[in-house]
Every structure is written in structure tokens, then in C-alpha cells.
Specification:
mainly alpha, 0% strand, globular
């Protein structure tokens, strides 16, 4: 887990929003190739309101929400193409 955290920090911009931090962590886990951990983290963020479509209040939330949806959609599409990943 600490490897994911360190790699997630490296993939996160300076002064990130919560969702940018989430994206950095998820991209690090995704890049590791451990699909079970990636799915578990996606589920954990979703349970706490920061899953696909999670947004921040404020004027930039629509841009952030669209970017999050696009990123997670691309990653999910890639995962669905794999036979060892269950689809939900």
C-alpha cells in the first residue's frame, strides 16, 4: 500500500484537490497492474462519494467531473477488454 501512496503522490499535481489526489492514487494503482486493488479502491472511493462522477463544489466542478468521467471510462473500458477482470 505504501508503494501506491508514494507513486500516487508523484502522479499528483502540486496543491491538489481531493479528486486530483484520488486520480493520482488510482492511476498509480492502475499502472501497477494489480486489478483487484484498483477495483477495491474504486469501490472505496465510490462508497464515500468520490467515485465516478464525484465532484467538488465551486465553479470548476463541471470540468473536474467531466475529466474524471473520461479518465475512469477509459480505464474501465481497458479493464473490460481483459478476461481476468469481472465486469459489473
Amino acid at each position: 500500500m505504501k508503494d501506491y501512496i508514494v507513486a500516487g503522490y508523484k502522479a499528483t499535481p502540486g496543491q491538489p484537490t481531493f479528486l486530483e489526489g484520488r486520480d493520482g492514487l488510482l492511476s498509480a494503482i492502475y499502472a501497477s497492474g494489480n486489478i483487484a486493488d484498483y477495483q477495491a479502491c474504486l469501490t472505496g472511493f465510490a462508497k464515500r462519494g468520490a467515485g465516478v462522477g464525484g465532484c467538488l463544489p465551486g465553479p470548476l466542478h463541471r470540468h473536474q467531473q467531466r475529466r474524471d468521467r473520461e479518465l475512469l471510462h477509459r480505464q474501465s473500458a481497458h479493464l473490460r477488454g481483459r478476461h481476468d477482470v469481472p465486469t459489473t
